Amino acid sequence: MSSRSNQRARYSFANLEEVLELPDLIAIQRDSFDWFVQNGLADAFRDISPITDFTETLSLELEFDPNDDLLRPPPKFTVEECKEKDMTFSAPIFARARFMNAETGEIKEQTVFMGDFPMMTDKGTFIVNGTERVVVSQLVRSPGVIFQPGERFRLRNLSKHQLVTGTIHPYRGEWIEFDVEHKPGKEPTAGTRVARKRRLSIFTLLRALGYDEENFPGFIEAFVEEFDFLQDQYDKEIAKFDTDEAGAVQFPTQTDSLIEIYKRARPGEPATPDSARTYFENAFFEPRRYDLSRVGRYKLNRKLGPELDALEETFPQLRGQLDRPEVDQPVLSRCEVLASCTYLLHLAKGTHGYRLDDQDHFANRRIRSVGELIQNQVRIGLSRMERVVRERMTTQDVEAITPTTLINIRPVVAAIKEFFGTSQLSQFMVQVNPLSGLTHRRRLSALGPGGLSRERAGFEVRDVHFSHYGRMCPIETPEGPNIGLIGGLATFGRVNEFGFIETPYRKVADGKVTGEIVWLPADEEEEYVVAQANTPLNPDGTFSADRVLVRRSPQAASLQDLRLQLERDEFLGATTEISAVPPSEVQLMDVSARQIVSVATALIPFLEHDDANRALMGANMQRQAVPLLRAEAPFIGTGIEARAARDAADMIIASDAGTVVSVDGNQVVVDYKGSGKRTYRLHKFERSNQNTCINQKVIVREGQKLAKGDVIAEGPSTDNGELALGKNLLVAFMPWEGYNFEDAIILSERLVRDDVLTSVHIHEHEIDARDTKLGEEEITRDIPNLSEEILADLDDREIIR
Predict the structure, then answer these.
(1) Residue 555 pLDDT exceeds 50
(2) Residues with Cβ < 8 Å from 643, sequence gap 6 or more?
(3) Quick one: average pLDDT of 610-627?
(4) What is the pLDDT of residues 461-504, one digit of tens each?
(5) Domain limits of the chain?
(6) Which run of H or E residues covers position 138?
(7) Are 483 and 439 in contact (CB under 8 A)?
(8) Which of 355, 488, 655, 701 could be joined to 473 by an S-S link, Cβ 3.0–4.6 Å?
(9) Is the pLDDT of residue 247 over 70?
């Protein structure tokens, strides 16, 4: 029998050709979990290793190699067995433990079991206690440094007069905040808050960092000269300092400033020079306590790199003296804190070329996907285990200690179980239809641990932002209290190594669109002039019009006079301008018109004619369509129905070219050219998480030749390999004797009679027959003193009909 694709041929009326195929729609889940297994788990073990006792003579090293099959055996049970027996689909993880005694030089090595870790299925989901769950990706504030307009308000007994603020946010550790205040009738002052404590003078922080009069003579005077609006603050501080016999001012030393910071951070504790220095060093320059992460390091280098170069030019005292950060340095450098101060003061001064940041911009918000979320839980578990190991090192006999006796895996297992069982981001998978499951796996949530809370989230963070273009759908979001806090990844969006969402663009060279595709995160996109996907092109790829409508880099972002803006109580943040330019000025072009929306929104035909609010409701309501007895693909689609159904992973797809050997109601056997015979078991009338019916139907025949990617069996709500959420019904918009007043509708009797809109729902009810003191309970219809009429609805198996 000849090979024939069983997918329906569709005629496209589109005016635009699709230049880029849709990426894997659940790659956000798969790629992130693969990263966790290949890199994240090993990193977590590396971070806590070695664990030493208090005398530093005994140490325990833990090492995990993802490529060693002995440390990563396969799961004990299949996905189907786990669902059937209410178990977790997981695989055991082992680590190499090395115990060393520095006094005797003795080394003991063992392979230690670290617990069963839940594994991701091929569909991008987890099976926990027999139920399918999804870990939703979280949108969080990116670590790094951010400069924003200050808060200005006056209440009865509370007022704030900040011009600008800056904050260094690490991935893990204490914050450093800066601000410039300008109270009415007074000169501006610059201050800082270390570890969210009371405000200090900015000069105290500079001296604590080592930029004091002793180490860098003349630097602070030059600093005040550069930022002359701080002269009044500096003079007032000098007036408080002691003078020596000759009348010279006794400036505070680095140690004095460290003690002042320590007193704010640890009030009530005796402040000694050693304890103050140790606190400051540990808080910001110790990798175990402070971690910028690769993202934070990238953001700091990008923001402060030019400022560090400018520092050496402006202040000759610093030339060749700055402790510039290493490429992968996880902690702060002292010069970066100084550069953050000067950047903030340049903003307050109104220096040209310095820009405020927008905390809602996707350059400052990143995705924490499933792999990173699980890695954080493993870190928490390992740090709890570290405490137990330290205690056991001191209490156990040194001769008898082995890695197995030291390690207690309970904290690690408990942390992972707690995350999958109770975390706000580990959710019961929505399985109403294939689209609802696909959308759930592509969801982005700003809620959850370390994120926002819906009570405190304001209007700005919920609103559509221009940097969402091609990254997060502006339409698909819930209507209730979570509006704007939960969104969907755009169709072409992908997450890069730093967690920022990238979107693709076609390169334009000399007014001609090339076939080259570039993927850009939000901050890099702003450097370009971008044309729309529907810009008319000639056959050779040149623009047919002499002016092209584009969006270009933010013009209003370089704030010339910040004070004026704040006095008007209005902040002109970064914004994109729409303008028409000659073709030669265009640098990039959108790849597709559906690039800006999510998969659910892209399934709506003629979306451009929809009102935005109704489109939102339509995108959300498609996820509520229950699978019908007979699915029917839409006459008019948008072209992504087949791709959405395929990536939702509810169908069986041919993995290679081959031949169908046998077909029956429960299984299909395919003989592949490369890998031989494979048997596919069908899911027949299984209950989904939402009690809808999961039923797979074979659509191939015995002897049929298959090409790679052909559909072998389709699942619920699919028709010939395409998503089929509804029916092609004839609808009349007309009044009918008042019966369809307002939102009432009238159905044809045929729809009911022919089961056109009939769906199957499966509910599970359990009853226990216990062995009691009075004897065994029995499930029976022979109940005394009840008439046959009352028992008429019980069948011969004692089950209600």
Answers:
(1) no
(2) 22, 25
(3) 95
(4) 999 998 999 999 999 999 999 999 999 999 999 999 999 999 99
(5) 27-141+367-441, 144-362
(6) strand 137-141
(7) no
(8) 488
(9) no
Structure tokens at 739: 């019966």
Report the topology of domain 27-141+367-441.
Rna Polymerase Beta Subunit; Chain: C,domain 2 (3.90.1100)
What is the rounded distance in angstroms from the CA atom of residue 46 to the CA atom of residue 173?
18
CB atoms within 10 A of CB 8: 13
Residue 278 has a CB neighbour count (10 Å cut-off) of: 14
Could you tell me if 128 and 88 are in contact, meaning their C-beta atoms sit under 8 angstroms apart?
yes
User: DSSP of 585-647, one letter per residue?
Assistant: G--EEES-GGGGSBHHHHTSTTGGGS-HHHHHHHHHHGGGPPPBSS----SS--S-HHHHHHH
Distance, CA of 675 to CA of 3 (rounded, Å):
19
Q: Please report which confidence band the pLDDT of residue 662 belongs to, taking 50, 70 and 90 as the band edges.
A: very high
Residue 222 tokens read as 């030059």
pLDDT tens, residue by residue, 527-545:
888 999 999 999 998 999 9
Amino acid 489: pLDDT: 96
User: Which overall architecture, per CATH, does domain 144-362 show?
Assistant: Alpha-Beta Complex (3.90)
Token pair in block for residue 707: 């090409």
Amino acid at 372: E
What's the whole-model pTM score?
Answer: 0.90
Angle at which helix 273-285 crosses helix 254-265, to 10 degrees, equals 80
Ramachandran sector of residue 163 (left: φ over 0; alpha: ψ -120 to 50; beta: rest): alpha
Going by the DSSP 8-state scheme, the letter that residue 543 receives in this structure is B
CA distances from 626 to 109, 324, 429, 602 (A): 56, 59, 15, 19
Is 665 exposed, middle or buried, given 0-12, 13-18 or 19+ CB atoms closer than 10 A?
A: exposed
Q: What's the residue count for the chain? A: 801
Spatial distance between the Cα atoms of 618 and 614, rounded to a whole number of angstroms: 6
